[in-house]
Amino acid sequence: MKIDISFAPAWWLAHYGMDSGAALWADPIARTERDCQQRRLLFERFGDVGLGEEHPKPHPSIEAYGHRFMAALWGCAIKYQPDQAPAAEVLPDAHKRMQNIQSPDLQASPIVQRAFEEAQLLKQRYGWCDGSINVGGPLNNAVSVFGEEILAACAHRQYSAAEPELAQHVLQKMAETVLAVDEQITCRINDTDTALPRPWFGIGNCPVCLIAPQTYRQVVLPVDQWLRGHFQELHLHHCGIFHPYVQAYHDLHPTHIDVGWGTDLRATRRAYPQTPMSLEIQVKALNNKSQAEIDAMIARMVEDAGPPELITVLWAAEAGPDLPDQTVRDLMTAPVRLRWL
């Protein structure tokens, strides 16, 4: 078990003047070198508490859109800003597009063509390239592409906008495209076996907390199950409150779960007594916390989600420039004071 923290583009801009705008994302070599530089700077600043790398090796990748590759593939414009991660703009006329949805043609897609061109360039420069793509999950992608329209369609029939059959059809198209991207892009660039079931897959279910557990079970779960059936192991990422969905998620048979802040960790552990978990620490929960308060918070989380050997990591994501360095140090050194190391 370990503790980790990542830093938002706003943190890098404020402390090091690093612009995360369009120019960076347009140049795969610049992205790779920036990543190395950031890991080295983290070591200089926080290496004594376990962050960063003194001599980082390049990790070239084709993530030219941050975590919005799938949205770009479906035709969304990607917005770049100097102090934020790339964001997808919801397609116009979303409901009409949902009614007439067609899977993107990967062979003709300029997004896919760019991925292969970048992979070739990066392999020439560094000798290798990671073709992995954060493809999210069916609902995650549908929300990025269609916004609130897909959530309204998923809703219970008592709402006038509810169209669960349409929603499930859209989600199935999303799932089929996720599988196609994994096979035709990631496996090809990484030179890995495309035979099914493949060893491992991750489903990102960030927006699930926006729909009721019953709605998830009736509309979304069958599609998630279809996708899950193509892989031997499933890493389920749910960065919202997890415990209302514990019963619905049982049918996915996850082999690892990411559990969001605010979750009843005891209830979740009872529902998944043998499943490895990672636990989110919301960055705002660290603000104005003393070292003793941070230690108490971490100890309580580990006690509730234990046994400790089934907790893989406690993680805080996207720390901003308002988080003091001392708070970062207090968080990272909590295991020493709690005698886990």
The overall number of domains is 1
Q: Which structural class should the secondary elements be placed in?
A: alpha/beta
Globally, the shape reads: globular
As a percent range, the share of strand residues is: 5-15%
**Number of E strands:** 8
**What is the terminal separation in angstroms?**
10 Å
Give, in order, the helices and strands: EHHHHEEHHHHHEHEHEHEHEHH
Major sheet details: 6 strands, parallel
User: How many helical stretches?
Assistant: 15
Provide the fold topology:
Blueprint: E1 2-7, H1 9-16, H2 22-26, H3 28-46, H4 69-73, E2 78-81, E3 84-88, H5 94-99, H6 110-126, H7 138-146, H8 148-154, H9 164-190, E4 198-204, H10 213-228, E5 231-238, H11 246-250, E6 256-259, H12 265-271, E7 277-280, H13 291-305, E8 311-319, H14 325-332, H15 334-337
Parallel strand pairs: 1-8, 4-5, 5-6, 6-7, 7-8
Antiparallel strand pairs: 2-3
Helix pairs in contact: 7-8, 7-9, 8-9, 9-10
